[in-house]
Amino acid sequence: MHRRLIRSIVATCCIALCGLIAMTASAMEIRGEKPSYIRSGVSSVANDQAITRMIWAPGLDDGYDPQGVTWADGVVYLSAYRSTNPGVDRGPCRIFKIDPENGNTLGRFDLPGDCGHAGGLAYVGQGILIAADTRRLYKINLAAAFQPGNLATAVTATVELRGELKGSFVDFDGASVFVGSFEGDPARAKGYFLPLSLFDTQSGKSVDEAAAIRSIPLPTRAQGAAFDKAGNLWISASSSRFGRLYRLDSKTGQIAASFEVASGIEDIAFDDQGQLWSVSEAGALRLQFWTTTFPVLFRVDLSKLKENR
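RE: above sequence
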């Protein structure tokens, strides 16, 4: 009897402790508009002690699956495609402009009809945004994009990608446009540095890997990229079962550090204070069957991350 009582007390304490741990992510205020189909909060995720802000991804009720993230002039931009079918990962693409303080959506821009995934965003300065679709890059004038009816003047150049070049995600290192692909095969997982002038010299044309300045190997299942102020390349990688952040040597692609994070993590971007922003597609309308529910934009304090050992 005594042993059974001890076991019962231990089991009760474990359940209580697990409950406290699970509350870590869900206890934080999630800003923005909560989707109607999510009854409770979000799942607890790895390294959630490093998360300092969460915002519901906009467009979830309309079936938008969040993908690309970038930061420009104090605002977060999020790209997404619309699909409610678990077997269809393409659809009409939209970019949302989001206030990082209160989570309000400040504007929306619908990409041309040939966009189907909108996996990455990058801000290259001077009011210019680059959006990446799997086989196409779009150069976008931000001032025009969020004025109604200005699609024709907002997209100022497009470049088609072929060969080994894929726009699963995109970023900018201050000089070159960096594109990478989501690949399960390590031999095919690469990132390519392209000249920014490509949009002037090759607009409306197609280019392959021969146009690249150089390339580096990447982790498999990469979903996003961002360069920090020190020049390190950060890569996000994920599936329905895992999420990971890598810090790479941007010259060689060698992995310097690895951190477990939310499953379904997509693109990443640094804000002006050096905080990392990302989004997870786990719990998007078409992915409600995943075991993780975390369809939020979230900000990460890198100093609080615990490295994988």
